[in-house]
Design brief:
Strand 2, helix 2 and strand 3 form a beta-alpha-beta unit. The longest helix is centred in the N-terminal third of the chain and has 20 residues. The chain is built from 7 helices and 17 strands. A 6-stranded antiparallel beta barrel has the order 12-15-14-13-16-17. Strands 3-2-1-4-7 form a 5-stranded parallel β-sheet, sandwiched between helices. Helix 1 packs parallel to helix 2, helix 1 crosses helix 6 and helix 3 runs antiparallel to helix 4. The chain has 3 domains: 203 residues, HUPs (Rossmann fold, 3-Layer(aba) Sandwich), CATH 3.40.50; 62 residues, Roll (SH3 type barrels); 82 residues, Elongation Factor Tu (Ef-tu), domain 3, CATH 2.40.30.10. The chain is an alpha/beta fold and 366 residues long.
Length: 366
């Protein structure tokens, strides 16, 4: 008996290519889909979607699977990009990859795949999914990827039970070096391709220039925390994020030390950027945060007075914490140790050992 049909999201990168290869080797009926989700500036040097499409098609040809491209650009603009711009305009720093996953890759793409008769979808994410049966019944769990340096469960924390039940992560148990070796051994043309680090589907373009196309520049003062002295000018609060060091243009401030400057706050009312000196300045640390727009993977909410681990940004180390549910859509996360540059608009993601429980959008900090 043949295995069911699986639609794989082929991005052009090596991770999704190996995901498709492994599924084909395991006997699934595999079809590759390239998601076209961004059309603005499609011919400039920073948008590589055309080359991505070429690479994805070449991979499908080598593996020997059917392949097609599907355009989700309108869904992306409505469900992801509009929110992205709104958050930046409000002075927050959103994470579009989180929304892109929940709204495009695991909603629009999943719906399309089901219409094609697929039983499952698959992607090249470094994460794992399992069906777990406990005392309270059966549920689907999202687990960290085996490769801690590549784990992407943070970006997937908004997936729900239905989405996880329909999803395979074929490379979640592998390390990146193993993925590249598998691709090399199989003769995949993209085995040595550089990893993408740009915004989901938009590419690796200069961010401030890109944002300025949609949000007008609104210059204002840069002030040191606790001082009325103007030490620089900013281009617009939307272009900066808490903890930012590069691109501030502050230098030679009379009476200041040689320590670097960091963004500590945004004074939206007066259009001022507030900065401090030194990576370890007290103003850059928070002991707690409030999160809204909660999304818990399990039907059961986190327990009170229970020690969990949480990340308030992707590359941050886990921080021990407790979760206090305030209401159905708001919680407080209290950390055991101060956390650096906790940023409104970013996601706080909660873990219990290897299991990703979900999280929410950071609203404020203390």
């Amino acid at each position: 008996m043949s295995k069911p049909r699986v639609i794989v999201g082929l991005s052009g990168g090596v991770d999704s290519a190996v995901a498709a290869l492994l599924l084909k080797q395991q006997g699934y009926e595999v079809i590759g889909i390239f998601m076209k989700n961004w059309e603005g500036d499609d011919d400039d040097e920073y948008c590589a979607s055309r080359q991505d499409l070429v690479d994805a098609a070449a991979v499908a040809d080598v593996i020997g699977i059917d392949f097609e491209a599907v355009n989700f650009a309108e869904e992306y603009r409505q469900r992801v990009f509009a929110d992205f711009l709104h958050e930046y305009q409000a002075g927050r720093t959103p994470n579009p990859d989180v929304l892109c996953n929940s709204e495009i890759k695991f909603k629009a793409f999943l719906d399309h795949a089901l219409r094609m008769g697929a039983q499952k979808i698959a992607t090249g994410h470094y994460a794992q999914v399992r069906e777990f049966t406990g005392a309270l019944g059966s549920e689907w769990q999202l687990l960290r990827g085996e490769d801690g340096n590549k784990d992407q469960s943070y970006f997937l924390h908004r997936l729900n039970q239905t989405q996880l039940s329909k999803t395979l992560f074929p490379i979640g148990h592998l390390y990146k070096r193993e993925v590249r070796q598998i691709a090399l051994d199989a003769g995949l043309p993209n085995h040595a391709r550089k990893d993408s680090t740009g915004i989901c589907f938009i590419g690796e373009r200069p961010f401030r220039e890109f944002l300025a196309q949609y949000l007008p520049r609104n210059p204002g003062e840069i002030r040191q925390l606790g001082s009325d002295k103007v030490i620089g000018k900013h281009d617009g609060l939307a272009y900066y994020t808490l903890g930012q060091r590069e691109g501030l243009g502050i230098g030679g401030v009379k009476g200041a030390t040689e320590e670097p400057w960091f963004v500590a706050a945004k004074d939206m009312l007066n259009n001022r950027l507030i900065v401090v000196q030194g990576h370890d300045h007290a103003a850059l640390f928070s002991m707690s945060l409030k999160a809204t727009n909660l999304s818990w993977i399990s039907p059961r909410e986190p327990r009170r007075h229970w020690v969990y681990a949480a990340k308030s940004r992707y590359r941050q180390a886990d921080g021990a914490c407790q979760i206090e549910q305030i209401d159905a859509d708001q919680c407080e996360v209290v950390f055991a140790a101060p956390q650096w540059a906790v940023t409104p608009g970013q996601s706080v993601v909660v873990y219990e050992s290897r299991v990703c429980l979900g999280g929410g959008i950071i609203e404020s900090t203390n």
